[in-house]
Amino acid sequence: MATRVQSPRRIDGLRRASLALCLMLIVELALGIGVNLFVNVPASYQGGMGKGFADALTKGPAALAVHAGIGLLLILAAIGLLVQAILARHTLMIASAAVALLTIVGAANSGASFVGSGKNADSMVMAMLTVVALLCGVLNLYVLGRPGVAGALESPTPTP
User: Torsion over CA of 93, 94, 99 and 103, rounded to 10 degrees?
Assistant: First the structure.
């Protein structure tokens, strides 16, 4: 059975995309903590998940709007990472990127619910899902290793 060697260019792209996702998630998590602790969400934003998200993004306060905007960018970044992993045919990266995307979408859903309802449980779920997505990114970096060095768990995907 022949094995397919991973393209160094694709691996470098996956590494950069994973690092960018991790950094964005750290910023988003820190900003979310600040918003939760120090920003009062107007009661007029309550009234449902969709209304809560739209109001957060368009009416502010500024920190809440930035937090929601970064959340949207995170979804796009996770989609990009998943596409890169699929193109590289890196099975573990595909699984990790898919989990990251699902948890980021789940965190956005919980965040919109939190703005719409003000329930602390929604905020907690949003934070925990963000941490899971961050762990996926860290796993990616571990698997891919340093540039020019084979990753810790990297194994070429066999081709039929």
Answer: 90
The total number of structural domains that make up the chain: 1
Structure tokens at 133: 């997505």
From 108, 110, 100, select the one nearest 77 (Cα to Cα).
100
Residue 59 Cα distances to 55, 56, 114, angstroms: 5, 6, 16
Position 150 in a domain:
no
Q: How many CB atoms lie within 10 A of CB 60?
A: 15
Q: Which domain holds residue 93?
A: 18-144
Q: pTM for this structure?
A: 0.83
Domain assignment present for residue 138? The answer is: yes
User: Is residue 48 in a domain?
Assistant: yes
Counting residues of the chain whose pLDDT is more than 90, the rounded percentage is 49
